[in-house]
Amino acid sequence: MARDRRGRLIVPRLLSCAAAMVVAGLAVAAGADRAGHPLVDRGPFALSRFANNPDAAGVAPLRIGMLTSLAVAQTRSGDGDASAKTFAAASALGWRDPAVQAWAAGQALASGQPEIASLRAEALLRGDPDGDLAVAVMTAIAADRDARISFMDRMAQEPTLASTALRTIPRFAEDALDDGVALVETAMASGVRLDAASAALAGSRMAQRDLPAAMSLQVALYGIGGLNDFGFWARTFEAVSASDDARNPFVWTRSETTGAQLESIAGGDGQARLAVSGLAGRPEHLAGIITIVGQERFELAWQASRAGNGGPDLTLDATCAQPAAAIENGRLAGNASGWTRTVSVPTRCKAVQIRVFAPGNGGNSRWLANPRVTPLD
To answer: I need a labelling partner for 359 at 20 to 30 A (CA). Which of 13, 84, 111, 352 fits?
Structure first.
């Protein structure tokens, strides 16, 4: 049986991640098979009756839902040859069953036919876009360079397909997330335009799962941003006034606990500034941004308005965002350019949140500008 570029069996892998769902009644979820006959989970031909018993399935009515359930049971029992024959028989009854589409896509990939695999993947995404089989097939497409390119051609012709495919990427297995990002990079390089809402949703879901992968997806979708210049993706503070629904971890967003007024303005030197007013007169964190720091030590630097004691009105500190944990923030140091502090990051920390902090003392109208992250090690 054919294998992908990582040496994994293609067709069984397409089904294994969703085999339990299929056997439990993937066709039942649709309510009927292609002939319109209802498929119920009771009686002598109930799917659950032969989910793990291929022999029992052999006497069931010849319907596509029954055959695909038999094929999945055969796959789970390790009988790949029998499973392939059963899937072939099921495909002769129609192509609407998601398991048949997944099988056909795997067969095409195994046979070096990326164009056919892309067509089958497209059909599956149209029929069952949020199913586990769609995720499995798109994982296989993303892992195959020729299939990625072919699928991009389909996306260019059908713009809505791009947004549907993008929804599957945050659900890829951890070792396949890089392939998902490569799929998006190929799409953007090919001129495919993704729906803004779908792109934002995919980024948000990826961030909930894996922040470094989410940063890679952010760059694939929107470019390098300010990473090379500032160590952050965002160049300005414009998002601090955005609604909660528009939150993106890689732009500056307001803290959910502050009641202060935050605004992005241009300073006299042309630098973007975070302007703060309406403070409650107590120490509080006002805003934050996520960045990925590969080094164990880095320097935070910024400029800020001065408090009455000569110190900064606003400061920056850091905390580990994934996994949630405290990290060591060094003492504040002032220089001609502004303020700095050294931050030490534990090796298990995958992503860091940089936060704007307002000390209790200071004026009611404050500003912070030119934040930067500079690796030290």
So the answer is: 352
Summarised one tens digit per residue, pLDDT across range 259-312 is 999 999 988 777 889 999 999 889 999 999 999 988 789 999 999 999 878 899
The CA-CA-CA angle for residues 256, 198, 252, to 5°, reads: 30
How many residues are recorded in the chain? 377
Q: Are residues 248 and 349 in the same domain?
A: yes
Domain limit, last residue, from 175, 195, 222: 222
Nearest to 369 by CA among 287, 276, 273, 300: 273
258-284: string of b/e by CB count within 10 Å (b at 16+)? bebebebeeeeeeebbbbbeebeeeeb
Is residue 3 included in any domain, yes or no?
Answer: no
Q: Give the number of domains in the chain.
A: 2
Q: State which of 194, 222, 250 marks the end of a domain.
A: 222
User: Is the whole model's pTM more than 0.85, yes or no?
Assistant: no
Alpha-carbon dihedral angle through residues 45, 48, 54, 55, given to the nearest 10 degrees: -50
**What six digits make up the tokens of 35?**
């002939």
Do 206 and 352 lie in one domain? The reply is: no
- Please write the tens of the pLDDT for every residue from 302-326: 999 998 788 999 999 999 999 988 8
**In terms of domains, do 255 and 291 share one?**
yes
Written as six digits, the tokens of 76 are 């789970």
